[in-house]
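Lecture notes, continued. The same structure-token format from the folding unit now serves as the input rather than the output. Read the line below as a description of shape only.
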């Protein structure tokens, strides 16, 4: 399968080859042809699958077939839940449209609107936007959506999680009813399906292949540890493992700030990225992290959602998420586009039940390691094994003990294989049952 065989035009193929992509990812191979045919598409895909190119490439081809030279009304609207994702999608649009006569802009809140307004006034074909700023600028008469032909709703599940349903409904009333729609979501709840039915017209359903999902390619590990030892443990892991680029997740903004300070005190360059940080600070932190001047980026779930940091080698859950799906999103920051990566979770006694739920969701138990000097609090209650828990999970309770962190590097492959084997076993079991 090649990009050419998907029917993409020469200027796009040139841009793709400049990016270094050789073959389309599964979601691209499945989504690009129906989009080019003008069909509505509902795609189940999360970040890391190549979904952005999956909608951007055919969208650019459609728009470039009928290029407006003088007056440029906005013909494509791409809606994203977060500012960071909007900026990344826009960066992709710019790269893929390098050899086309297409103009684009991005708008999001938290920054001065003046430069955004100036770009829009010059005339653009594609607008990438977060809902709040879009409604704001539409109200001000800066943005007109009356000529939109293509509408993309990216990360629809996160849109709903962030409470954007009303805004989306408002925006839908501002764009023509005759249009092509593309909707991407990592999960499909009842609410997402309802939203899909209200937006899409007879959509083609597209799914990224399960082999491509993060949990398969990522080496996952749990460190059981006392709560008050977590900071020392993460500093030890980063320092002794010589980890150069680490994304750390905390549950709260306050926790992110606190951990960042402690890292800096330990001579590890770090920055926090969360909703209370200004857009400028967030962009600067992300740029520093990508460049390598910042070694550790400490983030909350919402801030990290959709961040495109290629080949991120380490993700650490400083606190394990209480929403199991967030675990999959978090570890999806590593092992991107087929590259392997390591995801480590620091789990204290009070988080065990969250871990169990995650294991249930991903269908595998995660290897556990205890490092000497960082043992779980002996006084913390061990969770009783509940009826119905599977054998793997019970085995997991028998935690392998390792004497130092140096061993953990050696255990990488065996750990990955055991994850894979378990997963395979699970698949075999489920197929034999069906
Ligand atoms: P996305 O899921 O759109 O955030 O993309 C995840 C990462 O995969 C980004 O760094 C893309 O640049 C990269 N990517 C997208 N498509 C391909 C491809 N066909 N081959 C290799 N890398 C890709």
């Amino acid at each position: 399968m090649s990009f050419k065989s998907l029917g993409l035009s020469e200027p796009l193929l040139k841009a793709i080859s400049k990016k270094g992509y050789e073959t389309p990812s599964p979601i691209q191979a499945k989504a690009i042809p129906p989009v080019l045919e003008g069909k509505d598409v509902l795609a189940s895909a999360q970040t890391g699958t190549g979904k952005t190119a999956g909608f951007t490439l055919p969208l650019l081809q459609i728009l470039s077939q009928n290029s407006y030279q003088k007056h440029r009304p906005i013909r494509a609207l791409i809606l994203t839940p977060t500012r960071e994702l909007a900026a990344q999608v826009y960066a992709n649009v710019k790269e893929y449209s390098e050899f086309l006569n297409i103009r684009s802009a991005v708008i999001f809140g938290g920054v001065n609107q003046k430069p955004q307004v100036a770009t829009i006034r010059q005339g653009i074909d594609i607008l990438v936007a977060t809902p709040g700023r879009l409604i704001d600028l539409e109200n001000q008469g800066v943005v007109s959506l009356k000529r939109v032909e293509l509408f993309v709703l990216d990360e629809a599940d996160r849109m709903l999680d962030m409470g954007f349903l009303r805004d989306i409904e408002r925006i839908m009333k501002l764009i023509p009813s005759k249009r092509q729609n593309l909707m991407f979501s990592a999960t499909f709840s009842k609410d997402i399906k309802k939203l899909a039915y209200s937006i899409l017209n007879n959509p083609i359903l597209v799914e990224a292949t399960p082999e491509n999902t993060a949990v398969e390619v990522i080496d996952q590990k749990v460190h059981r540890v006392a709560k008050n030892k977590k900071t020392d443990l993460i500093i030890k892991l980063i320092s002794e493992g010589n980890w150069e680029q680490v994304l750390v997740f905390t549950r709260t903004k306050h926790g992110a700030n606190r951990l960042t300070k402690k890292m800096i005190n330990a001579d590890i360059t770090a920055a926090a990225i969360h909703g209370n940080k200004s857009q400028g600070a967030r962009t600067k932190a992300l740029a520093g992290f990508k460049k390598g001047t910042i070694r550790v980026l400490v983030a909350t779930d919402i801030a990290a959602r959709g961040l495109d940091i290629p080949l991120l080698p380490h993700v650490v859950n400083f606190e394990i998420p209480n929403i199991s799906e967030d675990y999959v999103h978090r570890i999806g920051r590593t092992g991107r586009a087929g590259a392997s990566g390591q995801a480590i979770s620091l789990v204290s006694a009070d988080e065990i039940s969250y871990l169990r739920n995650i294991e249930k969701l991903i269908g595998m138990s995660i290897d556990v390691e205890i490092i000497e000097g960082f043992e779980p609090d002996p006084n913390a209650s061990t969770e009783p094994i509940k009826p119905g828990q599977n054998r793997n999970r019970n085995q997991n309770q028998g935690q392998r003990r390792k004497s130092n962190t140096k061993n953990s590097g050696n255990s990488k492959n065996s750990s990955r294989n055991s994850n894979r084997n378990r997963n395979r076993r699970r698949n075999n079991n489920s197929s034999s049952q069906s």
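Point for the exam: The pocket of adenosine monophosphate is lined by residues 21, 24-25, 28, 47-53, 308, 310, 336-337 (CB under 6 Å).
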